[in-house]
Structure formats: C-alpha cells, structure tokens
Amino acid sequence: MKKREDKKDFYDLVHKEYVLMHQFGSPRRLRDMFRKARDSYEQNYIYSLLCNDSYGVCRYIKTKDLFSVDKNKLDPGIENNIELLSKSFNHYKYVPKGLDLSHGGKFGYIYILKNKSMPGLLKIGYTCGSAFERASQLSNTSVAYRFEVCYLARVRKPDMVEKEVHQVLDIYRVRGDREFFEVSLEKAVDVIESCAPYLKKQDSSQKFF
Predict the structure, then answer these.
(1) In terms of DSSP H, where are the helices of 110-169?
(2) Which of 5, 44, 46, 170 has the highest Cβ tally under 10 A?
(3) What is the per-residue pLDDT across 32-65, written as a single tens digit (0 to 9) for each?
(4) How buried is 187 (Cβ within 10 angstroms: 0-12 exposed, 13-18 middle, 19+ buried)?
C-alpha cells in the first residue's frame, strides 16, 4: 500500500506516540487518536499498528473500546531499536483492507453533534465507523458550518441504544423523521448513559465540550 500524502502529519504523530507508548507503557494517547479518527483508514491504521502479530503490543477490548498493553512486549529503549522503529515508521505498507471493527454491527459509537448554524439543536445518532468521519459526511454544502463532535460512546448494539435514546428524548425532538433534538448536552449525555449504564463503569466514552 502506498503512503498517503494527505496523512503525513497523522503518520508522524502516530509514530511519535507509538515510541512514547513503549517508553511509558500507556496506549491512552493512541486510544484517543483511534476514537477521534477522521476516517476508517486512520482507525484501521492505529488498530493494526497496535494489534498486529509482529510488532503490535496490545489487545483490543471491543466491548470497552480500549487497548490493553502486554508490558512484556514493550521496549523502553525503542529509540535504539532500529528494526522496531523502521517497522512502525513503515506501517502504512501493511494496513489491512476491509477490517470490520464493528464486528458485524454489534458495536459502534453513539454520537452527539452540534452545528453553529443550528443553535440549541443537537444531532444524536450512531455509526459503526468513525464519529468524526460521520460528522464530516454530514457537513455538506447545505449547511453553513461544519458539524462538530461533542460526545461519543462505544456501545453494544448501537442501533438499539440509539432507538432507546430517541424514545426517551422524543419530547425534545424537532421532527419525527429527523435526529435533531432541542435539548442540553448534559441532558443528552445523561440519557445515553442511562440507556447504556455500563458506560459509567468503563472508560469507553469521551466528551469534547
């Protein structure tokens, strides 16, 4: 696979964080990048870098959207390990195609989006891919401003969780055929976390407000 010119900054940052993970033992920054990926390519890149059988050091816990590190595979002296540095730097050559990180739609992200051109309204939906990619898809020429991700949470059966959230928030719904709600962010998050109560017990959600 060829190196993508539009991902140069992304490659550099992931490589830097991969080195820091080896030195300090935490994949948190890469986990956050995985959640905030602009598209499925970035998600697949990070997932396959961390979990491949050759130079991967993590196990992905799909129910929690977390990467668990095998500390026995870490090399704190990675800056002197030319072979390992080279593998990480050239990982773009080995990113697999067709990865299904939703496991057939069994897992996905419930998201909350806002848009400056729609003050007071929130779009609440789900995607089996990247929430940020979904926001970008919705930011077409029919809206003046881009959609922004305010919140995302990795959930089981995302279609069912979305349906329950929409039912609870129905009195705030602007139109029956649209996913827009006139409700506060705090209220929307509370409803999502009440419909998927395990979110409060595990680190699988993230706020951006």
Answers:
(1) 131-138, 158-168
(2) 46
(3) 999 888 888 999 999 999 999 999 999 999 878 8
(4) middle
